[in-house]
Amino acid sequence: MPIPVEDASGFQGSADRWLSPSSIEELAANLAEANRLEIPVTPSGAGTGITGGRCPNGGWVVSLEKLTRLEVHPGFAVSGAGTLLKDVHAAASNSGQFYPPDPTEWTSSIGGNIATNASGSRSFRYGSTRRHLRSLTAVFMDGSVRTFRRGEPLDFPFEPVPAPATTKNTAGYALHEGATWIDLLAGSEGTLAIVAEAELALLPQPKELLSGVVFFPDDQSALAAVDAWRLTPQLNMLEYMDAPSLDFLRGPYSNEIPKQARACLMIEQELDSLPGDPVDEWVNRLESAGALEDSWFGESARDRERFRAFRHTLPELVNAKVRANGFQKLSSDFAVPLEANARMLAFYRESLAAAFPGRFTIYGHIGDAHVHVNILSASAEDFEHGKEWMELAARTAVSLHGTVSAEHGLGKRKRHFLPLMFDEHQIRNMYEVKRRLDAKCLLSRDTLFPDLLVVD
Length: 456
Ligand SMILES: Cc1cc2nc3c(=O)[nH]c(=O)nc-3n(C[C@H](O)[C@H](O)[C@H](O)COP(=O)(O)OP(=O)(O)OC[C@H]3O[C@@H](n4cnc5c(N)ncnc54)[C@H](O)[C@@H]3O)c2cc1C
What we know:
Number of helices: 13
CATH architecture of the domain at 209-399: 2-Layer Sandwich
Distance between the termini: 29 Å
CATH class of the domain at 209-399: Alpha Beta
Largest sheet: 6 strands, antiparallel
CATH topology of the domain at 209-399: Alpha-Beta Plaits
Bound molecules: flavin-adenine dinucleotide
Strand content: 15-25%
Strand order of the largest sheet: 16-13-15-14-17-18
Structural class: alpha+beta
Shape: globular
Oligomer: single chain
Radius of gyration: 22 Å
Number of strands: 18
Helix content: 25-40%
């Protein structure tokens, strides 16, 4: 009986067999067997992905759910691929340390985070998952197990592939000049090897953090504040929500969101060793930006949790609405160079207002020129039209030297975007690398690479 497999986008696949190895040795034996029998294998983490990556078209799913080792040491943690991000955050915090990557979905797994090179809100200051890996243990389709230390260069010849001019990117393989094994495997969406374990770099926990949810009466003031606040020292996060996003949140937060609010920015600033009075400075910043007085600020862990929950509730509400409408998620993950941020936003706003009035939201990591557009399809025609709009937006991002995926990966739902960003020769270079590491092309079939490249 086929086993149905879904992810958080509502994409559906099915597997012939579901394996959950309890050790790296068992995982290696599973892959060697699948390789010998020529059975396609798809790795699965916690299923919070939103591009259909873990949903197979037949074959075996290898779930990492039992590889949950977690040890915290000064400066690093050893984590199994199946360990949940929230457990790493909690254990690091108990030791007075912290793990910077912060994709909004804390129930994702470390293996899934590495496979998608996940980032999220704090990447504004700390970058994406790749930057925080000290080592990585990967299992290849032939059953071999290798541990790669940070900085270990690729030990085979490859033709470099250019990277976009964005602060984050996870589209295609990181095959720039001098690329390392960690560069390549992090963000390769489980198409080259299965991540079994990793050593994660931890930083000392900041003693004082100021968090804020700043409301604005109009969008222009919020966007002007993004440019003005970008260089604020020790700013960890600069996140944005537009008016339709706030309208979504007015459901659960009706008494708390100011009535006049039509846009919002979320910030977090580390205060340790900052000169002057940072709170006074925020008062001045808010005044000159025309922010609403009843914005929220706090310095306690409880405040941070409250604001974080507010931020996390938004994609959850949007995803629930999309599902209730009976359509798959139609959301963008494009990023552009910082200097192209205003142009990309203007394109979003004008084209969406014309094509999907009242049926879209824009929110996300504006500090990285990376916001997510969600189209809330109301009909099958809307959904088809929405797919066309996504492709137009992908082309626009690429024309501005941006990326078609900053943090979610392309999976199965967005793999047709890869040729918008890379030419055929560059994609073939990537595919050559895949064939070198997975000679029978069994791992994560139909993920990342468009059909045109499925060769003999
Ligand atoms: C509400 C919500 C908010 C989100 N916010 C963010 C955000 O802010 N930033 C962000 O980056 N993402 C975000 N995501 C997306 C998602 O959480 C990330 O992509 C996450 O990294 C997926 O991890 P997972 O364990 O759930 O992986 P899965 O969904 O199980 O898999 C994702 C991909 O990784 C592969 N994979 C999984 N485990 C392994 C492994 N051990 N080895 C090799 N390949 C593997 C799978 O085959 C698949 O291709 C959000 C998702 C939701 C639902």
